[in-house]
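Shipment paperwork, digital attachment
Item: protein structure file
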Amino acid sequence: MKTLSRIYTVLVFAFLYAPIIVLIVFSFNLSSSTIVFDGFSLQWYKALIKDGNTLRALYNTIILAVSSSIIATILGTSAAVGIEKYKKSAFRSTIIGVTNVPMMNPEIVTGISMMLLFVFIGRALRIESVLGFGTLLIAHVTFNLPYVILTVLPKLRQTDKNLSEAALDLGCTPLASFFKVVLPSIMPAIITGLIMAFTLSLDDFIISYFTSGPGFQTLPIAIFSMTKKRIKPDMYALSALIFVSILVLLILYNSIQIKSEKKPDKE
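Attachment content:
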């Protein structure tokens, strides 16, 4: 039985990561073929450095992902703390239910509805080109918020309430008690929510497609515009670099989290 379970696990991971491995291998291909590997070469990485449009779209994507994830993490953590203040009540259940709606709602519905909202507000304020970085930022913060809230809430429930009350008894203000006691205890969940928001914003296409303007283009939209023609192999190199960067960030975060969990045990 254990052998079958191991085989099943290996097959699942092979199914998940085989396309990425093929992509990374062919990013070093000497030719532009996606079938035959003609030899090792770094020419597509060099071509990527010279591709100004792709690098500009990558820069826009990173700026948008960093900005939206930070804002969503701050707002989501504040909202989770506020929701946790309400114990068992109809208001708390309603807020959690409303929070789940954007996650269950199809992205195309969210994208179209937000586009209509932005266009309506733009016409009401007599703004000609309302769609751009601002609308993209609002849209990304909106769909990232539920994930941050639902990541931080369980950690808040696990936090010992007596610690913050003890800090208040020792002379801390409620704000100081939060920053000195509650915030450090929920920091792993906050970082997890931040990373999740960043990755969701990084690869979003549907909502970005409907809420972006001609002056600001993200990487997924730029890659989609290339599908009308043959995609250049430098996109393989870019995808490989993004995958490796995200993998390194996750490994570093997990190692830091493991070390932080071992310290209390040693103490």
